[in-house]
Amino acid sequence: MLFIISILFIFLIFFTYTRKLDHTSKWFILSFQILWMLILCFSTTRPYGLYLPSDYTYYLLLINVFSFSIGFILNGRKKFIQPDLSLAEYDVVKILDKNIIKICIIVGCIISIYYFTIFLAAASLSSSLGDVRMDFYSGELYGPFYDTINGLFLNPLQIISYPLAAFAVYKKKWIAIPLLVFLVCYNSLAGGRIGYVKVFYSFIFAIICIKTLTFKRFSGLLIGACILFIGISYVTAERGKTSDNVSEQIEDGMDETLEHIATYTCGATVAFDYALEDNYLEQVGGYSYGGLTATSLLHLTYIVSNKLGFPFEQPIIRLAPIKQDKWIKVSQSRSFNALYTAVLFFYLDFGIAGVIFIPFLLGLLVRFIINQFLKYPNIWMLTIVNYIFILTLTSTTDFSLRDFSSLVVLVILYIIGTKHRKRQHLIINY
Fold this sequence. Notes:
By secondary structure, this protein is mainly alpha-helical. The chain is about 70% helix and about 0% strand. It is globular, with a radius of gyration of 22 Å.
């Protein structure tokens, strides 16, 4: 299977690279393809004893990648807008210099630090972070007002802060420090690690927009990757907590983190294979007909319907207990839950047809949004594309656009972003 996967991806990447795509679109889709290639090829080697997915599972995952890529590439135009993306950089600098933005960032930083101290206090009294995470998901850790503060302020600020932090670092703005502190503290509130990776993805996307990967920026990415690895290692060790010595914890955490990297990247493909074998489709009551992929949109319908006295059960309510509470074996020594790749959602919606057509439609949509960014290169559109870049790469582990508040923020940003029409354009013929 390794040979087939390698050949198919070499063809796909070569085909994509030779297309006449704008710089942002080309490296956006290539990042997606290369990440999937590395994960699928790596999984065939059964790292750390992970079970080997069936050929059928591999073909479904490959169809997902090819369908998204085809939809993405097809949604080009004979004439497309190719602006100077320094306009977006200029817009970022202007936003960072606004006092109201600085105040929001500092307030968000203070609030996230406050909640982070609660998290640290709970962690110090607990035998492992696993118990603290259970308190977080049950809503007991941060009190009754956290969900409201998070939905109305912290989560929207997080989405906007991803590109702001990356560009603030590259532009050497002092506000980069509170931005990074906010992102680190906020993404630590659940004791998870994927949030740190999202910050790292934002820096990669910023380089894609800047277009030049200098030695200095490459060195910065390597240093950031090392810091990220050490930070994740410490969190990993804390979740197991085998020693009170910090250096020993980090050393133990590094060993375990290497295994966790393999597990969390390749384990999702194994989990998806398990979901097919264990017939999750029957367990959730049959096809959801788009209800899982459109969870965030369906939530709005649910709110309105519930107010009118016509409540209904959302498909995600049936799937969530299976994903979160059911621990499965991905190897003889390791159990796994929650992460099944985004393809599980597509499959449970329409079966094989969902794996073919939903990624294709998402590819069309993502390319459309990137085209809008190229047409209106401002901070608001940059934030949307940056966030979609993160969601696209994390689709290797899960389908992440399920939060209604995040969708609302993206829609608002899109409306604001498309109002900024005074931009210089250069029309280029394909």
